[in-house]
Inverse folding.
């Protein structure tokens, strides 16, 4: 089973710290605003398949908007 992350776009305030923390640079900032008016972090399906599950993005997120599932 693969590792994966889930980004709760409603909680994300668009700080971008997760994009800096990801060693593989898989997370990007959306071009569309969330319901609170922020540009949330997103990960494409292609990049999600490459995710190592290191959890650095979730550790860096001040809003606890990222959940990491290893081996799911």
């Amino acid at each position: 089973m693969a590792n994966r992350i889930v980004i709760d776009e409603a909680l994300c305030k668009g700080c971008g710290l997760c994009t800096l923390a990801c060693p593989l640079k898989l997370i990007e900032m959306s071009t569309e605003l969330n319901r609170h008016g922020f540009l949330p972090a997103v990960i494409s399906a292609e990049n999600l398949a490459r995710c190592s599950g290191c959890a650095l993005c979730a550790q860096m997120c001040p809003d606890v908007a990222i959940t990491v599932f290893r081996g799911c």
